[in-house]
Amino acid sequence: MTNIFHVKNFKLIAKIAGGAVVLILVIGLWAIIKVATHAGPAPTISITSPQNNYSLQAQTVSVEGTVSPPEASVLVNGVRVHADKIGHFSYQAPIPNEGKNQIMVIAKSRGKQATSTLTVNRIFTAEEKAAKAKADAEQQAKDQAAAAQDKAVLAKMTTSYDDIQKTTSYYDKAFPESYRESGVILYIKKPDNAKPVLYLKVQYHGDAWLFISSYIFSVDGANYTYLPGKMMRDNSDTVWEWSTDPVNDTTMPIIQAILAGKQAKVRYSGQQYYKDHPISQAEKTAMQDVMDAYGVLGK
Fold first, then answer.
1. Which of 43, 124, 233, 293 is most buried when burial is the number of CB atoms within 10 A of its CB?
2. What was the pLDDT predicted at 13?
């Protein structure tokens, strides 16, 4: 029994040892391949044409040179270029800009890289200069027109600045904020040095509490339900209830439907009662004005 036990242990040990040897051989082979793959110096690039700071009037320039080793991949301004058996490459590179244009040649081989750069000066012809001047003037006119249009859009807004929160609020002048009227209002808050945020405010004003929990917008017969994040309520001789939430993927389609639709109204749905409010053309115009201003501020 003892001899049999020792034989079995010997076979097990031999099997484990054999596996370890195989693993060592695999690791060793992998290390040899890795070293061989990355062995050797980094590739080299020699640009023979054009010379640095070469000047020309053409729209392209022939970039020629050699790379070593010849099988290295070559990129000229990001474009893959084929090198022949002795490493010679040639590429007709575009020179789009007047004045200085940089040409960068990159060679990659066995995980290593070499880079060579040069500058080519493009001289515009008289015809090109005239065309550029015309294009610049047209672009300047477009920019001025766009700036004037943006200014006109923002001129429709009334603003208030919160020096604590460092935020500017934008409301449409034609539809001023008031708690003593029912309505659907869009407005913008723009923090200093940050993107603007669009808000949807829905408010109810009346003689009796509704305790609103949701809104149903009806636009040309199609219904959209909106659940506000938080309802606010107050009263004096009358009562008003309202909610204010940032516009999101749920409310933006509602706003777009209202602006595109012919007839729209909102139902203030309360715990027991409800009240309908037709959305007037003045409200829709004010909403569109705010949307336009939101686009301008978001540029």
1. 293
2. 46
